[in-house]
Amino acid sequence: MRNLLNLRTASAPTTPVAALAALAAAVAVTAGIAAPVTEGPADAHDDAIVRTAQTVSYQGISVRIPAAGEGVQAAAESTSGEISLTVTRAADGAVVVKTDAHRHASKPAADRSVAQAAAPSTTRTDSAKTCTDAAYSLSGWKLNDFKWYYNPAGAPAAISTTAATAISAGTTALTSACGQKSLGLTPAYVGQTAATPQVGAAGNCTGNDGRNVIGWVAGSGRWLGMTCTYFKTVNGVKTATGTDTALNTQYKFFTSTANCSGAYDLQSVVLHERGHSLGLNHVDQTAHASAVMTPALSACTIGKRTLGLGDYSGLKSMYGTK
């Protein structure tokens, strides 16, 4: 369910009192003064966009309103679906909020992960379409220079020695799929860092230092991974200036194909989050179940460690091939 709200051009209040309140809030936003919390229109699930003078929140994730000519997206791969919140501020100060929420029709993936004592399944959902379904959706920006860092602090003990390899594999998997030409993007691992991903435990994007860090956070929300991407608009072209990803230690991850019980494949989660960093958006779970950029990821499966044709096609439309 997508929702679009222009904070500057919302419908005018119908009463004098409401008009005065709206004017005061607008003045506060323009001046950068803290304003009372107000709520935007609810989506089909009755989830309101909550905004103040400085932040916008939606379904447990939040971002700070960016400077003029800039934008930020928070994308959370949740155990009950997936949520994204994109806030853009035009050069004239107008703030536009776009939300995108996908919820599982049945129980959340985390709740469906009944203890499985066998090796993780390698079967890809609707695998027959993996290399024939070319559907994709774009967020609107490119990340032209993807140098990234890994902060191992807080990594779960069970995968502390293998996490870096799985994260690297998930990132490298961005470059090709389905026997097609290699894509014209080259993610480059710089090394480990003490800098933390600028993603708060509460599911908030906390800032942009331009370092592109992936690491671990004990998140309070129901999300496996969350990516915050910042971008700027110059002459109508959006370019990402920084992207950080947090992996939630409140959930179990695995890196090998050994016995699995209620854990999620780290490489698959990373590949999905990297898709967000590079400008891919979600596609419909039912219609395009084989794609990496669907909102659902079941426990104890490794079938989404590589791009589907649609994921590849979306990246190709932005980055071309080598």
From TrEMBL:
Residues 1-34 form the signal peptide. GO terms for biological process: proteolysis. GO terms for cellular component: extracellular matrix. Residues 102-126 are annotated as: Disordered. Gene3D superfamilies: Collagenase (Catalytic Domain). Residues 242-320 form the Peptidase M10 metallopeptidase domain. It holds the Pfam family Peptidase_M10. GO terms for molecular function: metalloendopeptidase activity; zinc ion binding. Keywords: Hydrolase, Metal-binding, Metalloprotease, Protease, Signal, Zinc. It comes from the Bacteria. This is Matrixin family metalloprotease. It comes from Cryptosporangium phraense. The lineage of its organism: Bacteria, Bacillati, Actinomycetota, Actinomycetes, Cryptosporangiales.
